[in-house]
Write a structure and sequence with these properties.
This protein is of the alpha/beta class and 393 residues long. The chain starts with a strand and ends in an 11-residue tail after the last helix. It binds flavin-adenine dinucleotide.
């Protein structure tokens, strides 16, 4: 069997894998060889390529807010950071804002979150029902107590272009991308010593990053590590509406339904009810969800949506952390050189830059330098102390 040596092997080369590859190869403190093993260079079924590609600072937990604030900074600096031979892909970042809506029931949480978000530097304004009506006359606000609107820094982008920019830059910095499936992580004396590929190769490694998204749990299970991450299907619908909705941000309805502008129309979606949300195995769109739940809910919120037409749709898989819907990052205590960055539960594209930077710091210096993510490590899982995120969309 052919063997090659790398200091770091990254399993999975989409947003998280490519971000880790970019930051590590850009780090002056890291001199090693990096390989990214990606089974599908077309990224057809990756969550990154199928995502709703939006970024918000409106989380309930400080680490998530800070990671996404860095995501915004990264996007604003994208053209300079990602330039190769003087050019970079355009991530088409549009700072259109998020609008989280709350009824009386959700008001206290909305207010509490806004205080935390603002204290960390997010530009979020609380709007009363009357202010919402004045600013968004196309929105029904009768049942609402307030809304929290991102005035800058939040919005949407081309997630595929962002990922390709990081991948391209990583390659320019010497990272080797390998088209193959990782079939096994071979362990000896509490360390992964080889990454086994389906083309017969075995890559000797100093460290491994598991960035395999919904494939991550299967990779670590044979090592006796139970990653509480499962695939959950989420469908996205592209619709056209005969009326314009001036100033429309990404709107999060109290029901959990969302919509935002996309091209000449809008994209929208909602999570299925929890009892109808099994492990996802296919990519069939949940049309009944649109007809029976999503459309009625959103037509009640935006009367112009009564006349919308669904023109296309797709489904992707969230890598859902069933334990507390948050990132699991860092080393597992039982394997000394296996790093994880999984369970992003629907907000990983925007946090990929912060996660790649964090992994690079951990590998290069043994600790977080810029943003302490230790609360999101394995310890909380093993100690059964969840760090919940309230704002999971
Ligand atoms: C419908 C939908 C909407 C979303 N909307 C948003 C949003 O608006 N904002 C946001 O921030 N996030 C959003 N997300 C979540 C976000 O897309 C993900 O959290 C993020 O893309 C995860 O990146 P990743 O690199 O970990 O995983 P992925 O993008 O899934 O990549 C994992 C990669 O690993 C590869 N792989 C898997 N197993 C192996 C193996 N054994 N060997 C080699 N390669 C392997 C796969 O081919 C894949 O390319 C959404 C997700 C979905 C599905």
């Amino acid at each position: 069997m052919a063997q090659q040596n790398f200091d770091v092997v990254i399993a999975g080369g989409a947003a998280i894998g490519s971000s880790a590859a970019y930051f590590l190869s850009a780090d002056a403190g890291f001199k090693g060889r990096i390989a990214v093993v990606e089974l599908d260079p077309g990224y057809q079924f990756s969550a990154t390529a199928l995502s709703a590609a939006s970024i918000r600072h409106q989380f309930s937990n400080a680490e998530n807010i800070r990671m996404s604030l860095f995501g915004t900074q990264f996007l604003r600096e994208f053209a300079t950071r990602m330039a190769v031979d003087g050019s970079a892909p355009d991530p088409a970042f549009h700072e259109g804002g998020y609008l989280f809506l709350a009824t009386d029931q959700g008001l206290a949480t909305l207010q509490q979150n806004q205080v935390l978000q603002s204290s960390l530097g997010a530009d979020i304004a609380l709007l009363s029902g009357a202010q919402l009506r004045a600013r968004f006359p196309w929105l029904k606000v009768d049942d609402l107590a307030a809304g929290a609107l991102g005035l800058s820094g939040e919005g949407w982008l081309d997630a595929y272009a962002m990922m390709q920019g990081m991948r391209r830059k990583a390659i320019a910095q010497g990272v080797q991308y390998i088209k193959a499936r990782v079939t096994a992580l071979r362990e000896s004396a509490g360390r992964v010593v080889e990454v086994v590929l389906d083309d017969g190769r075995a890559l000797a490694c100093g460290a491994v990053i598991n960035a395999a998204g919904t494939g991550a749990a299967a990779l670590s299970a044979p090592l006796g590590i139970e990653l509480p991450v499962r695939a959950r299907k989420r469908s996205v619908f592209y619709v056209q509406c005969p009326e314009a909705l001036p100033g429309c941000p990404m709107v999060i309805d109290p029901s959990g339904a969302y919509f935002r502008p996309e091209g000449q129309g809008f994209i929208m979606g909602i999570a299925p009810p929890p009892d109808q949300d099994p492990d996802a195995t296919d990519f069939e769109v949940q049309h009944a969800l649109f007809d029976e739940i999503l459309w009625p809910v959103l037509a009640a919120r935006v009367p112009a949506f009564e006349a919308l037409r669904c023109q296309r749709s797709w489904a992707g898989h969230y890598d859902m952390n069933l334990f507390d819907q948050n990132l699991i990052i860092g080393l597992h205590p039982s394997v000394g050189n296996l790093y994880f960055a999984n369970g992003l539960s629907g907000h990983g594209m925007q946090q990929a830059p912060a996660i790649g930077r964090a992994l690079s710091e951990l590998i290069t210096t043994g600790r977080y330098q810029t943003l302490d993510l230790s609360r999101l490590g394995w310890q909380r899982i093993l100690a059964d102390q969840p760090v919940f995120e309230v704002n999971v969309v």
